Amino acid sequence: MTSDTYFTARGGWIEVIAGVMFSGKSEELLRRVRRATIARRRVQVFKSHLDERYAGIYRVSSHDGRTTEAVPVDTAAQIAAHIRSDTEVVAIDEAQFLDERVVPLATDLAARGVRVILAGTDTDFRGEPFGSMPELMAVAEIVDKLHAICVRCGNPASRNQRLIDGRPAPYRSPVIMVGGQDTYEARCRACHEVPLPDEGQVPLL
After folding, report:
1. Residue 37 lies in a domain
2. Ramachandran quadrant class, 56 (left: phi over 0; alpha: psi -120 to 50; beta: rest)
3. Separation CA 96–CA 121 (nearest Å)
4. Domain region containing 76
C-alpha cells in the first residue's frame, strides 16, 4: 500500500522515508505535507535544528529548492511539547539526528490517531545504521527507501560518501557533520570508501 491509500484509513499510522543524501527524502516529505494540506488536514512540521542548510533553520527544504515552514527541535520531548491537540498530521525531517525517544513518540502519536511522516538518512557516512532510523523503519506501516545516483558509476546510490578536502573521510571521523554537495557525495556500495587511518580499509567483521 502507498501512503495515499493509508490516508483514508481510520486511526493513525507511521510512514518513514529513508535513504541517502540527494535521494529526494525531503522533497517526498514536502509532497506528502502539501497533499495533506490540500486535503484540509491540520499539519505540523518539525526538523532537527542541526540542519540549517538552504532555507535556514525555520524551514524544511529540499535540494530542488522547495520549502515549508518548520519548528526546529533538539529532542523528541520538544516535539511533544509543541504538538497541538487538534493536529492530524505530524511530519519530521532529519529524524536521524533526534534522540531515541522519537520512536515511542511516533508510536504514541499513531495510537492517538495521528498520521506521522518521518524522513531521514538511514545509514551514516560509514554505511552503518544511523540513530533511531532502523527502529523507526521497523515499527512503521509504510517504509519507502529512496536512492540517489552514484556520482562515480551512475548506479543506484545507497551510501553517503563524506569528503574532507576532496578525499574520503576516515572511519573514525565524527558521525554527525552536516554538509551539502561540497562535503558529501552519493555513491553505490562498490564506490563507497571509508578508509581507516594507516590501514586504508574498514575491518571485516
Report:
1. yes
2. left
3. 6
4. 3-147
pLDDT digits (tens, 9 = 90+) for 78-133: 999 999 999 999 999 999 999 999 999 999 999 999 999 999 999 999 999 999 99
What CATH number does the domain containing 19 carry?
3.40.50.300
Question: What total number of domains does the chain contain?
Answer: 1
d(CA 71, CA 175): 24
Kindly give, in sequence order, each residue whose CB lies less than 8 Å from that of residue 78, ignoring residues fewer than 6 positions away. Answer: none
Q: Which tens digit of pLDDT belongs to each residue from 163-182? A: 998 899 999 888 877 655 56
Q: Is residue 22 part of a domain?
A: yes
| Cell numbers placing 147 | 536512492
CA distance 187 to 205: 22
Rounded mean pLDDT of the chain?
A: 86
Task: Answer yes or no: is 197 within a domain.
Answer: no
Q: Which residues are catalytic?
A: 94
Is residue 86 packed enough to be buried (19+ CB in 10 Å), middle (13-18) or exposed (0-12)?
exposed
Secondary structure (DSSP) of 130-194: -TTHHHHHHH-SEEEEE-EE-TTT-SEE-EEEEEETTEEPPTTS-S-----TTTEEEE-TTT---
174 lies in some domain = no
